[in-house]
Specification:
Low-confidence stretches: 6-12, 14-22
Helix content: under 10%
Structural class: mainly beta
CATH topology of the domain at 4-21 and 404-536: Immunoglobulin-like
Distance between the termini: 14 Å
Number of helices: 1
CATH class of the domain at 4-21 and 404-536: Mainly Beta
Strand content: 35-45%
């Protein structure tokens, strides 16, 4: 069944994304309440695994993504921490921590479990996804910095800090690496320093009782104990913070300035403000209250965590606040999103966790929600005991701006006889993702084993049992810039009566590049799939 297809459309598919306009900065508050009025928390049943519910008080989507088995002192599955990215660069993978078991890898789109990770970081939080290569992560183990190739499960020593005879660590409250995945702050004994990966350099060392330095997003500055330092560990300025050890997250503003985002319960020595979110520029030291009494919000409730890890949306910062677990007042038990570039704030849901007020766990620390956004900021993962429950699971907030890469496939009808014409429409909707995919369009014959793969060179016969041998419709399709494509007559065929009678199944599938070479189709390799069945009777 060779059929015909438009070569012009095939050329477009290969070039798609290369000529599309860059994705504009998203308004993550679109469709989310921006008022400052109470949204008292109302009852909501705990959703089933991977089921989504609508927060009745804010109208946003909350999806449960784990189902931790009960039993033991702390039955918990949660994000690592609010200051390190949970998702990889293209959001296709997600790391969660299973208390008592270790770090686990999930499909970042379907949230299905893939496998336990064979890594041994010095601490739970000190695992860092690479910000451009979705297959890489870094972690500190012993006195070495390790680069881990996730798909291949291969460990590679980036640097052996052989002179470190003590514990090498990024500190008790580590931030992320620089947003270029190039600079990390570390400490061994009393020696604090920055290490730069691309040229394998320790850029500066200082003897100090302060905790480990933390790399700023831009990769040229750092933060340690309230001080802004350069990579040589020279103090540049001191931020006006009453307590430099409150929960905070390092990020970047749309202007390119590095920023320190923190909760502040007291004014700084020079008069900086109080709030659940106070943003300070590392370049100038200037600060601004984003969420606090001076901007119309309550005095900061307790149990606030801050995350600026939406690194593809610089300036957008997420908060998880416990306060009063009953969630009756403004900010209590809420997830909050703020654009620190403009001061725009929205309140996105009740996380329904009691945090350190939990009375069911052996250690109530594990019930802290510790929200962390995805790189695009259209989703955020958090932990919840769902109303002081005996277990803690991971949940995802899916904002109205969240879009997946989707494929669609539709025939002009479902039943045909000799002389009738089949036309097949093909659609792709891409929100703009920093990745590439291989695209396949196949027609499975009625015997369920033989197939025809449609390619730019024509139709090629193949077998369902041999995906490694399937030729692609397009390889390495660039998704980095957004596009929407719909062609109503991408493929056409006039049935001549010589075809096998029965049901033909057409499948359009986008997968990670090269992922079919192992002759398997793993669900976590699939970005999107669309299918349509038609029946031919001569």
């Amino acid at each position: 069944m060779p059929g015909t297809r438009s070569s012009a459309h095939l050329v477009w598919l290969v070039a798609a994304g290369l000529s599309a306009a860059p994705a504009p900065a998203a308004d993550l508050c679109q469709g989310v309440p921006v008022d400052k009025q109470p949204h008292p928390m109302t009852a909501l049943a705990k959703p089933a695994l991977r089921a989504a519910v609508t927060d009745p008080d804010f109208g946003t989507i909350l999806r449960r993504i784990t189902d931790v088995p009960p039993g033991g002192a702390n039955p918990v599955m949660k994000p690592l921490y609010s200051t390190v990215s949970a998702w990889n660069a293209d959001e296709s993978r997600l790391i969660l921590y299973h208390v008592g078991s270790g770090h686990e890898l999930y499909d970042g789109r379907s949230y299905r479990f893939i496998r336990a990770l064979d890594i041994d970081p010095v601490d739970i939080e000190q695992v860092y996804w690479h910000t451009t290569d979705p297959n890489l992560l870094f972690y500190v183990s012993g006195n070495r910095l390790i680069r881990y190739h996730v798909r291949e499960q291969v460990k590679e020593v980036v640097h052996d800090f052989a002179s470190c005879s003590g514990t090498l660590s990024a500190g008790p409250d580590p931030m992320f690496t620089s947003w270029g995945s190039d600079v990390i702050g570390l400490k061994c004994g009393t020696q604090a320093f920055f290490y730069r990966i691309h040229d394998d350099q320790i850029t500066g060392v200082a003897t100090t009782s302060l905790p480990a330095p933390q790399a700023a997003a831009g990769g040229g500055l750092g933060f340690i104990g309230g001080y802004v330092v350069d990579l040589g560990m020279n103090a540049m300025r001191r931020l006006d913070l009453a307590n430099p050890y409150e929960h905070a997250s390092l990020g970047r503003l749309a202007s390119g300035e590095d920023a320190h985002h923190a909760v502040a319960f007291d004014p700084g020595p020079l008069g900086s403000g109080v709030g659940s979110l106070v943003t300070s520029s590392l370049q100038t030291g200037a600060s601004r209250v984003i969420v606090g009494p001076s901007t119309g919000y309550p005095y900061p409730p307790s149990g606030t965590h801050v995350s600026a890890l939406a690194y593809r949306q610089p300036g957008w910062t997420f908060l998880s606040i416990v306060g009063d677990p009953a969630g009756q007042g403004v900010l209590d038990n809420e997830l909050v999103i703020a654009d620190t570039n403009t001061g725009r704030v929205c309140r996105a849901g009740h996380h329904r966790s009691w945090g350190r007020n939990n009375t069911q766990l052996a250690d109530p620390y594990w019930a802290e929600p510790q929200v962390v956004p995805s790189p695009r900021g259209t989703r955020a993962v958090f932990a919840s005991d769902w109303g002081n429950g005996p277990t803690v699971d991971a949940y995802v907030l899916e904002l109205p701006t969240y879009r997946r890469f989707t494929a669609s496939l539709a025939p002009n009808r479902t039943q045909y006889t000799t002389g009738e014409r089949l036309t097949l429409s093909v659609g792709l909707s891409n929100p703009g993702l920093p990745t590439r995919v291989d695209l396949y369009l196949i027609a499975l014959r009625p015997d369920g084993q033989q197939l025809v793969a449609l390619t730019p060179a024509g139709a090629v016969a193949g077998a369902l049992s041999n995906p490694a041998g399937w030729p692609a419709l397009a390889r390495g399709l660039d998704l980095s810039t957004p596009f929407d494509y719909l062609q109503p007559a991408f493929f056409s065929l006039t049935w001549n009566g010589g075809e096998d009678p029965g049901t033909y199944r057409f499948v359009l599938m986008a997968v990670e590049p090269g992922s079919l070479t192992d002759d398997r189709i793993d669900t976590w390799d699939v970005w999107s799939v669309a299918a349509a069945s038609v029946t031919f009777a001569p």
